[in-house]
């Protein structure tokens, strides 16, 4: 077996130029969708109940969710889980600080 030379695996200047061109082209392509609106949801938790229990709810009723205090909430973009975060208060309004970005396949 012959010795491998690492410089054989280095990208050529031409390949580097193509990578730069592709990055610039990708950024330009993305600019076309910057104004497309998306729906963002921050889900505190979920609950399941029977219709009879739902009908008994009234003002002041408490619905117990499946999350504990301080547990991360799920952040969805167009109904797709993309992150987890913590609830924060910003100028007397609720907000979410993202603490974890979910990659494809990590949503379980």
What does this structure look like?
By secondary structure, the protein is of the alpha+beta class. It has a single domain, classed as SpoA-like (Surface presentation of antigens (SPOA), Roll), CATH 2.30.330.10. The chain contains two helices and four strands. It has helices at residues 13-31, 51-55, and strands spanning 40-43, 73-77, 80-90, 93-101. The protein is elongated, with a radius of gyration of 24 Å.
Rg for CA atoms: 24 Å
What is the CATH topology assignment?
Surface presentation of antigens (SPOA)
The helix count comes to 2
* Regions with little confidence, pLDDT below 50 for 5+ residues: none
Mean pLDDT: 84
- What is the helical fraction, as a range of percent? 10-25%
Strand order across the biggest sheet? Answer: 1-2-3-4
Just name the CATH architecture: Roll
Fourth-level CATH superfamily: SpoA-like
Instruction: Report the sheet-strand fraction.
Output: 25-35%
How widely separated are the two ends? 45 Å
N-to-C series of helices and strands: HEHEEE
Task: Classify the secondary structure makeup into a structural class.
Answer: alpha+beta
CATH class: Mainly Beta
- Strand elements, count: 4
Domain module count: 1
């Amino acid at each position: 077996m012959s010795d491998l030379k690492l410089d054989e695996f280095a990208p050529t200047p031409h390949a580097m130029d193509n990578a730069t061109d592709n990055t610039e082209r990708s950024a330009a392509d993305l600019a076309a969708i910057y104004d497309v609106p998306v729906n963002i949801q921050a889900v505190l938790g979920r609950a399941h109940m029977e219709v009879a229990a739902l009908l008994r709810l009234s003002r002041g009723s408490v619905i117990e969710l499946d999350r504990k205090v301080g547990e991360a909430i799920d952040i969805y973009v167009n109904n797709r889980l993309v992150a987890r975060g913590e609830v924060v208060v910003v100028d007397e309004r609720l907000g979410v600080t993202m603490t974890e970005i979910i990659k494809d396949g990590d949503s379980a």
